[in-house]
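Work Package 3 (structural annotation) set out to generate three-dimensional models for the target panel prioritized at the project kickoff. During this period the team completed the workflow that converts sequence records into discrete structure tokens, so that structures can be stored uniformly alongside our sequence database. As a representative example, we reproduce one entry of 330 residues exactly as it appears in the project archive.
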Amino acid sequence: MKSGFLPLAAGLILAASSAHAETTFAVRLDTIADQKAVFATVESPYVVPARSRIGGTVATLSVRPGDLVTQGQVIAVVADEKLLLQIASLDAEIGGLQSALAGAKTDLNRAETLAHEGAGPRATMDQARTAAEVATSTLRSRTAQRSVMRQTLDEGQVLAPVAGRILTVPLTTGSVVMNGDMVATVAEQPFRLRLRVPERHAVTLRVGDPIRLDARQLGAGSASSGTVTLIYPQIEGGRVVADATVDDLNSYFAGDRVLVWIGAGERKGYVVPAGFVETRFGLDYVRLRGPDGGTAEIPVQRGEETPMPEIQDGLELLSGVRAGDILAKP
């Protein structure tokens, strides 16, 4: 009996101690990255116009604002009936030149045969050879001309210059366009955040600094994060302009304003897991464990959500606790 009871008792004690460790938290003074709330704008790296390469009439328009396109995708077709008529004219002319070239080659063969047999003058052979060469060159010229017209007809396809989202389509099917007219504007993706930070924070802003988007504005359970990638060297209107990349930003509207938290120095503070804070009737409480093992509810002042590497659901407490306090879960 004793040999079976002792391992069981040891396992119960170990489980109780681990459960106790999971339900308590020791408050300590942490170094917190101070954050400043600023507004940022969702922008595209480049807004590129898709232009028509020929003049004519918009025959088909396959996109509308908001559509996603890939680079090189056909978004519209501009047609010019004169090109089709010119190609048909060249086809007829090429057919006649091919017949003329065949006749010139026949005359040349006959003249060469007579000249070699001594039955015909050499001048006739030279004239037949010249006529065949002229017919060949003329046919080659008209064939190249037809290729140019065919290429011009193919350039009626308006292609997306970059991969991204269609912002505007100022035309409709049947609109008349000239060479170089804009058919649509494409916002290149992925989108980026354009931050405008007060210049007093310029000394603390660095490339690579993390930023945090407000979870309530995102409609998500947790905040999204990003990184500052570029700081522009010119101050505009008392503000430093910077760019930041954030995952899953392509679902936003271009030009949308979002609330962003950026680093603005460091300070000391108390960060605890959010599960140790209980809210009742608009007041926040924590359970403070005393030396005798008992607990007492202490009112605290809640600060901002402050995620840290070791406390993912970190919440700053502005008052009510001090370093060394042992908190118990409600």
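Confidence is low (pLDDT under 50) at residues 1-21.
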